[in-house]
């Protein structure tokens, strides 16, 4: 896990006995594989709880995003739901400077979240554009020490369900699509959401097939 981000600051702590591979956690987990499993299981539980809590007319806020992160990772990490106080980067790219996060999240609430949530039914390309803007801005802020990508996908899922879509199939953003996804996020730094909108269009197009397969 220490290879995912380059972190600096007093909170860049790893679990004793993990050889610098697993963040300090409530469960005493020291192996990356065990932590990945714990986080995945916790995400499924949090997703079910979120589906019960957030209805089709809910307008998401910065506080909701913190609460979703805490709901998911609270049983694992003491700092879950709190904005990070360490600076992190990935692949040579630095995310938002930690002291700026509170203000950036307020702006996200006033702008993209206010415009695009609740996410109402409409044309697929319009929904894809809404998902892309919110997703990109949240990823670029990267407000938490861990779990930002998965949290952004959870928020996209909740928005899509508000719009009457089936659960999203995010496979176009992974695997062979990963380089294009990274490039789309980088394009969004200049407010160009077109590449990511196209990718979310493919996500939406694939989702009914996944829903049909799951129903068999």
Shape: globular
CATH topology label:
Fic-like fold
Mean pLDDT value: 92
What radius of gyration results from the CA coordinates? 17 Å
Multimeric state: single chain
Spans of at least 5 consecutive residues with low confidence: none
Report strand %.
under 5%
CATH class categorisation: Mainly Alpha
Biggest sheet strand line-up: 1-2-3
Count helical runs: 7
Major sheet characteristics: 3 strands, antiparallel
CATH superfamily: Fido-like domain
Secondary-structure element order, N to C: EHHEEHHHHH
User: How many domain units?
Assistant: 1
CATH architectural type:
Orthogonal Bundle
Q: How many DSSP E strands?
A: 3
> What is the SS-derived class?
mainly alpha
Helix percentage range: 40-55%
N- to C-terminal separation?
36 Å
Features:
Fic-like fold, 216 residues, three-stranded antiparallel beta sheet, single chain
Give the helices and strands, then pairings:
Elements: E1 6-8, H1 32-53, H2 62-73, E2 87-90, E3 93-94, H3 101-116, H4 124-141, H5 148-162, H6 178-188, H7 194-215
Antiparallel strand pairs: 1-2, 2-3
Could you characterize what this model shows?
The chain is mostly helical and 216 residues long. It has a single domain (6-215), classed as Fido-like domain (Fic-like fold, Orthogonal Bundle), CATH 1.10.3290.10. The protein is 54% helix and 4% strand. Strands 1-2-3 form a three-stranded antiparallel β-sheet, with no helix packed on it. Strand 2 (87-90) and strand 3 (93-94) form a beta hairpin. The longest helix is centred in the first third of the chain and has 22 residues, at 32-53. The radius of gyration is 17 Å and the shape is globular. The mean pLDDT is 92.
